[in-house]
Amino acid sequence: MKDNFSTQASDYARFRPTYPPELIAALAGLAPGLQAAWDCGTGNGQVAVQLAEHFDAVFATDISAKQLSHAPAHPRIRYAVEPAEHCSAPAQAFDLATVAQAVHWFHFERFYAEVRRVLRPGGVLALVGYAMFRSGSDLLDEAILHFYTDTVGPFWDPERSYIEAGYRTLPFPFAEVPMPAFEMKASWSFDDLLGYLNSWSAVQHYRRSEGSNPVDQVAARLRQAWGGAAEREIRFPLLLRVGTAASIPDGRGNARF
Length: 257
Fold this sequence. Notes:
Largest sheet: 8 strands, mixed
Helix content: 25-40%
CATH class of the domain at 9-133 and 158-185 and 237-244: Alpha Beta
CATH topology of the domain at 9-133 and 158-185 and 237-244: Rossmann fold
CATH superfamily of the domain at 9-133 and 158-185 and 237-244: Vaccinia Virus protein VP39
Number of strands: 8
Radius of gyration: 19 Å
Structural class: alpha/beta
Shape: globular
Low-confidence stretches: 4-9, 247-257
Mean pLDDT: 90
Strand content: 15-25%
């Protein structure tokens, strides 16, 4: 698994949008129980904190200790530096496993084997991501799309293609559960927009390669396209693959992780 976000961990924690509570509630409602959940690739703990509103215990893991240093402490959450492909929890420990905007970095076969090992019978796996946002301004959206495809386009990792395909090209060897459409919403200032762009992995690759910040280069154009609004409502369509580990044999698990 690649670690593309330790460098900009503080920007990631500050500027990444928050998943809608309705999504987390819907996933909890699909789980066979509410004893324990695993949030894999938790980053700064966004989803873990939301899961803790529903589950007795949440195990939140990430390969980036720096990312985890920005995650809030919570009595129901235990954080650990672990790769997605090797979870230290015992077999059949979790009712739900979630991955938010991270599964495209994983080794799929190894990760899915761990999911099958740690989920309880009927347990649920939810892969969540988000596509390019819309700002409500065609002029601004066009400027950002140009930045995305032309300015930093060559610096995206190949795994970005899974997001561009709406996660539909991901291998998903589980009994898929149809889900309604969800979106994230945020009210951003212009500085929030720049902060979010600076959290992109492609921007960090560009900076290391070219020795300059591409966001600084387009800030004036984006400011003009932004217009005079103090804030804009930003919408991210969510990408979802949700399924059950139907082939796991019956048995009782425990949540002592």
